[in-house]
Design a protein that fits this description.
Length: 173
């Protein structure tokens, strides 16, 4: 285990890939949580302190990996994410807090990217950060409207900061 064990959430719909990534990170000493969907990941992000999210871009259902991080950053703006994908493009939400690894990858490549992400200096918000946050709020509102209730729970709105929620509501009215 790492001193003051760093926690990582692995969000991957393919159970085999999720287990491989989780095992690689666990063997390296990280505390690992896993999720198969973006909705499950959001619930974990709301309840657990995390240092990094490793997320597949193409998640099942109606919540992509990028949308997941945009919603998560409303509550945790400093959250870092390493995206995984078989596609060639490298989508991110924030280039300072995100990076990309193309599947298939090697163990050393994944661990190197994880360590680089965790050691990366995050700059202070630049001018225009309010617009970026407003874009995230709009994504969160769209995502929340797609959330469907399941047998075990009723749909709940995503938690946002009160001021941010008021701005999103004022713009939609």
């Amino acid at each position: 285990m790492l001193p003051n064990s760093l926690s990582v959430l692995v969000v991957e719909d393919d159970a085999r890939v999720r287990k491989i990534v989780g095992d690689i990170l666990s063997d390296a000493g990280f505390a690992v949580a896993t999720a198969a969907t973006g909705w499950t990941a959001l619930e974990i992000i709301e309840t657990k302190p995390l240092d990094l999210v490793v997320a597949d871009i193409a998640l099942p259902g109606d919540l992509s990996g990028v949308e997941l991080i945009q919603c998560a950053r409303l509550a945790r703006p400093q959250l870092r994410c390493l995206f995984l994908s078989e596609r060639l493009d490298e989508p991110t939400d924030d280039p300072d807090r995100d990076d990309f690894v193309r599947k298939p990858f090697r163990r050393g490549e994944l661990l190197g990217c994880v360590w680089e992400m965790l050691q990366r200096k995050i700059p202070k918000p630049q001018p225009g950060w309010e617009r970026r946050e407003a874009e995230r709020i709009l994504v969160a509102v769209r995502v929340a409207s797609r959330r469907r209730p399941t047998r075990s729970r009723r749909a709940r709105p995503l938690r946002t900061r009160p001021r941010a929620a008021r701005r999103a509501h004022a713009r939609s009215a």
